[in-house]
Amino acid sequence: MSGTNRVLVTGAAGKVGQVFIRRFLSDPRFDGWKVRALCHNRVLERTERVEVVRGAIQDRAVVNEATEGVSHVLHLATSKETPETIMDVAIKGMFWLLEACRVSPTFEQFILIGGDAGVGHFVYPHPVPVTEAQKHSAYPGCYALSKVLEEVMLEQYYIQYGLNGCCLRAPWIMEKDDFKAQLSFGDDVFGAPRWRELVGAEAAEGYVRSGTVPVMLDPDGKPVKRNFVHVEDLVAAILLAINHEKARQQTFNICMDEPVDYGELARYLEATRGLPSVRLKTPFHSTWLDNSKAKFLLGWRPQYDLARLTDAAFDYVRGPDDQRITWYPG
Predict the structure, then answer these.
(1) What radius of gyration do the chain's Cα atoms show?
(2) Burial tier of 188 (Cβ tally within 10 Å: 0-12, 13-18, 19+)
(3) What are the C-alpha distances in Å from 241 to residues 46, 58, 80, 91, 118?
(4) pLDDT recorded at residue 126
(5) What pTM was estimated for this model as a whole?
(6) Mind listing the pLDDT tens digit for each residue in 48-84?
(7) Judging by beta carbons within 10 Å of its beta carbon (0-12, 13-18, 19+), is residue 25 exposed, middle or buried?
(8) What mean pLDDT do residues 174-202 have?
(9) Could you tell me which CATH number the domain at 6-172+227-255 has?
(10) What integer pLDDT is reported at residue 193 of this predicted model?
(11) Quick one: which H or E segment has residue 174?
C-alpha cells in the first residue's frame, strides 16, 4: 500500500475509536498509513502518524477539511438519545461525509459502525435469529431511528454512486467494567434497564450491599438473551474489513457467537464469585444476532464468550485517572 493512505476516524476519542487507533497503528499491515482523527469535545494527541481535525461533523467545511486526501473513512460519531443534536450529528454529518467521499479522487472505502437498535434490539420479539436481511425496525426514540437512517443512506450511495462501503452492525459494545456496571442496582448503572427503579430504592440498596445481580426476564418469565460485543472483537472486525474484497457493499452482524443468557450469567457469577441473584420481569424479549456472515466472508471470529466477558469486567479495577464518564444519555 502507498504511504499516503489515510483513514479518517470520526468519533475518534470514543470507546471504539481509541481502541481502533491503538490497534491500527500497531498492525504491520498498515505500516505507512496515517490516522486522521475528527474530534469535537475530546481531542486526541497529535503524533507522527495521527493527524487531528477539530470541529463539528455537521459543519460541511469541517468535513471537507477532514476528508481531504483520505482513502478510508471509519464513521463512529453519534450522539445517542439527544433529540436536539442527533439529526445534525448522525444524519447531516454522515451526509456531508458521503458527499465528500463520492467526489474525492483519493477515497476508497467507507466503513459505518451500525447498531442492533436499527433492527429493534430486545424491544421487539424476534422468534428466529436476526440476520442481516432483517427488515429495519427502530424502537421508540431518536437513537434507533438514526441507526436506521444511517444504514439506509449508505445503501442508497451504493445504488446511486457505486460507493464502496460496508456496515458493521454491532450490539451493545463492552469495555473495561461496562458489563459489570450494566448489572448494578445503584445509581451508577450503565445503560438500561435501570434495575433500581424496578425494585425501589430500599430493596436496591440491599442488593448493592450483597452484590446481588439481576436476572432479566421476558414477559413470559423466561431469562432474556441479550446481544453484546467486546470492543476488541469489534475492532478486530473493522481491521479485517479494511480493503476486504468481500466486504464491498455488505452489512455484517458483529457480535458474540451467542447472546448472553441472564439465567446462565447468574449461575456463572454464583459459581465463580458467590454472588446471589434476583429474577425481575421486564417487557424485553430475547434476540439472537446471527454472526455467520462475518465469519464466512471476513474470516472473523469473536474471542469473547460469556465467561471471558464476565471475568474481564468483574476483574477490572479502575484507577483514579480512569473514572467512568457517560458522555451521552441512553
Answers:
(1) 20
(2) exposed
(3) 26, 26, 25, 23, 21
(4) 94
(5) 0.95
(6) 999 999 999 999 999 999 999 999 999 999 888 889 9
(7) middle
(8) 94
(9) 3.40.50.720
(10) 93
(11) strand 172-174
